[in-house]
Structure formats: structure tokens, C-alpha cells
Amino acid sequence: MKLIKNENYIVEIADMNENGEGIGKIDDFIVFVSGALSGERVLIKLIKIKKSFGYGKLLEIIKKSENRVEPDCNVFKRCGGCTLRHMSYLAQLKLKTKIVKDAIERIGGFSDIQVLDTIGMDNPYNYRNKAQFPVGISKDGISFGFYAPRSHSIVDVSNCAIQNNVNEKIISIIKEFMIKYNIRPYDEKSHRGVIRHIVTRIGVFTKEIMVCVVIKGKKLPNADYLVKKLCQLSNISTIVLNHNNEKTNVILGDKISILYGKGFIKDYIGELKFEISPLSFFQINPIQTKILYQTALDFAEFKGDETVIDAYCGIGTISLFIAKKVKTVIGVEVISAAVDDAVRNAEINGISNVRFITGKAEEVIPDLYQNEGVFADALFLDPPRKGCDVRLINMIREVLPPKIVYVSCNPSTLARDLKMLGECYEIDKVQPVDMFCMTGHVETVVLLTRRKIQQN
Length: 456
Known about the structure:
Largest sheet: 7 strands, mixed
CATH class of the largest domain: Alpha Beta
Helix content: 10-25%
CATH topology of the largest domain: Rossmann fold
Strand order of the largest sheet: 8-7-6-9-10-11-12
CATH superfamily of the largest domain: Vaccinia Virus protein VP39
Shape: globular
Radius of gyration: 24 Å
Order of helices and strands: EEEEEHEEEHEEHEEEEHEHEHEHEHEHEE
Number of helices: 9
Number of strands: 21
Mean pLDDT: 94
């Protein structure tokens, strides 16, 4: 069958991907359909045709899945934030387990790996401790919201059920301030305007609130008025300006000016307290982060006398979480500002058996072994979405620590790295954890143990 763009077709949806798209076929041609669920028969318009796959626009659901629910958000179809709002939460958890398992089998090449059921939340709403609202101009005036999928078109959102409810009040105050003093939003095309983004960080356990106004320029006119209005809200701990003068899509610049407070908030992961600045990386769901880290700790089965190296340690969250269970932890991180935060967080929590080093793990770990005689009994990996640097993987295959605990936010790069490590390591346990409810993203903890050398 010759396929024709913008023609309508009936498609049986057999699977789903992590983007929340249904996957079906027209004959043998794969089609991705946003908004369609597994098991559904749908009518689509074929809007894009590539060499081996295409994209369809959902026109009608002919046969509905039992897992379909009515989205509890009036901008769900336009906003790029949530992708699974039309699916029951139990079905979301099952999908995430399947996504991890499929990646390990398809990309990793493993056929007999058990993936445990994804650990979900009792209440999968209002869990995010960080929100980033782009600011722009629409036909109705100033708009705050989230970007539509695959674009920088802002969908105006006044209230989001996965964010903290106080964000709606913060945005309302800032919008009133901008109108009162005629402060223009930043325009990406002309590079004119003042306010680019509003970033909020909210302590889930401390309730402390940070408001970060990202601006182009050195100062925000009439900032005193904005501070006064924001401080009328309960629990405002600090208000800062972030200066980003670059022609870029990157949200935050490097420079911070404090308008009110100390420039950071505090929050907890378990019993550990952390200082969180505007530029700090901190997991957006501390409730599930505790479960994630506890799972990693349980997988490691420490006896108390181990030396542990935590590659990609960031601000030290995992390092400090496991420090009380082992003899020594060495955290390695390439970003020096994050290492400074990690050292400070160790001091805050009175933890002295942790050492943090700035550098690339693939260079630092061999240096520790060769020059200091430091050998890791266990290696923790928690890389960004792109996964581990191949040089680090190669170094691991040479040094061969007995045990690896890999924490991943991307099943595809996790599976790729497991395939490279599979020659030397057995995959013992795989546990997905739902950190990002209503989206297709999932965190996964994997325990790997060094293969025994076969004797001839």
C-alpha cells in the first residue's frame, strides 16, 4: 500500500513509548500517534511520513482502552509537561516497567532479566519541588506557562496539578507587577524585553519557598515592590535574580543577585538536610528520591567497612545518604560549584567520612587507585540522561570494582551502558521508581556484580 500524507487511516495501537505515544502499523509501516493507548483502534490523519516510520494525528477513538481516563487538566493536549494524563496511574506504572524491560532487552541484548514492578506514589500529584515558567506575550497579554511539545510556543497555565499550588499565587503577583510597571517579557527572536523565566523551588518538607526571576540585564526595575508583594505569601524564604544576557534557550545564567533572604532554601531527603541554591541540581521529587536512594542502599548490602566511590556525585545527595553505612565515600563531580555544595552539605549534616573531588570520574578513579592505593568496594553511578561517558565504562572494565549500583533516568542509555558492562558484570536486580508521575520518564536502580573468573 502506498501511503499518502494527510490521508486518514484506521490503526490498531499495539504498544506505547516513553513519550506517551501509541505505536501502531499501517501494513508494516510504523506510526506514532500522540494520545492513543495500547489496545485501542483509532482513526488517524497521517501527518508526517519518514523513511521507516511516520506520525499520525488522533482523530477518533473507535475502540477505547480500559486504561483510558479523562484528563484532569484543560491544557493537557496542548502542554508538553505531562504525556500520560489520559492513562490510569496503575497503567502508567505498568507501562514504565515495560519501557525499562523493553530497553534492556532491545538495546542491551539481554533476554532473561527480571524487572521488578515500578514503585509508585500514594498521591501522584503536587510532587514537584521545582517549576520553570517561560514568560512571553500572547494575544491576551503576558503569558506564563509551559512550552507546547517540540516548540517554544507558550501554553498559558495558571495551575498545574503536578506542581505546588503556591505557584499560581506567585505567578499572579509577578504578572500584576509586570503590568503595573510595564515590564516587558523577553522575546527570543528580537532579544528584547526583561523577564525571561520564573523559576520556583519549594521545600517539600520545610515548606520554604524560593522565587528566582530570570532577567536579561543587570537589574529589575521596581524590584522592591515585587519583593514586598511576594513576601506577603507565607514561607517565602528567598527571592533572587538570575542574569541571563545570552541569545540562548538555556534557562539560567551563571550570575545570581539576592533580593531577599540568603539565596537558598533547605529541604530534606530522609534525615539529611540540603541547601538548595538556584543553580543546584536537586531531585524534583524528594519523597520518591528517598525511596530511590534507599533502594540503591538496600541493593548494595553494605557491611560497614567498605570504601565507596560515587561517580557523578552532584551536590552529594547519594554520597551523604550512604555515608553512615560504610567506612568511606569519595564523591567525584566535574562541576566545581556542585562540589562546593556537596562539601557544604556534608558539613551541615555533620558527616566527616566523605571526600569530594572535582574532576572527570574516568580520570580521578584511576588516579586514586594508582597514586593513593584507593580501590572501590562498590561504585555508584548516577549519570545525566546521556548516560556514562564511554571512557568511564572502559575504565570500569579495567578496574573491575566488585559491585556497581547504577541509578539511571533514561532507560535507553542505561541499557546501552549495561550492554558494555555485561561482559564483566551480572545484572542482579532492576527496580524502576516513578519519580515523574503523569509523564513517561522513569528512574531505575540496577545492581551489577562482577562475574566470577572461570578457571580452566
